[in-house]
Amino acid sequence: MVLKENLQDTQRRILEACKRSGRRREEVTLVAVSKTKPVEMLREAYDLGIRVFGENKVQEITAKYEQLPTDIKWQMIGHLQRNKVKYIVDKVSMIHSVDSLRLAETISQEAGKKQVVVPVLLEVNVAEEESKFGISVRETPSLAEQISVLPNIQIQGLMTIAPYVENPEENRQIFRTLKKLSIDIAGKNINNVTMNVLSMGMTGDYEVAIEEGATMVRVGTGIFGARDYTR
Ligand SMILES: *Cc1c(COP(=O)(O)O)cnc(C)c1O
Q1: Does any ligand 1 atom lie closer than 6 A to the CB of residue 124?
Q2: What pTM was estimated for this model as a whole?
Q3: How far is the CA of 220 from the centre of ligand 1 (A)?
């Protein structure tokens, strides 16, 4: 019941942010971030129409993948270790967290073995927070060029995790910077690289992110409630 209301509220706020910024609702995909949440809750969200789920642990993706319908589009949004790529490479529809050439090479190799092409985003640490993964804005264009020549992997855009802030306005500049970076990279016309996806905005700041051009917002708490990491 709570989930249904949370979801309706989230959908309404996404729609309003789209209207405010003159964007069409179809331009923005809601990724329901279900990490730590039990399969029953994901099933409830599924029954309410959600098909795109975000997870940050390989084991959790593989376990939930087994138990839930096959038309779900799983999004790997967390830091990915190279030795675990093989377990999810043919199960996820996008990896949002590519932050090194070595990781991209592994994804390319493992995807080749399974004969799939994996859409990925480059994770950019726009705020340059020490505690976060991701590459710097400055490094991003050359990494995109290096990855572009690898088979079985396709860069489709950029992702960032903005700092935790009380007032979402504080992150507006971060989102603008990521948008501008994506335009700069698109302008380079790198073969096999598109910049159609901007994954930015979480529960606290997704409306501002949409106003600044997000095409994917990753909302966890706002849909499923607070996470319990003590279990
Ligand atoms: C957990 C997580 C989210 C969702 O965070 P909420 O604040 O609960 O909406 C979004 N993106 C990433 C990468 C995450 O790890």
Answers
A1: no
A2: 0.97
A3: 6
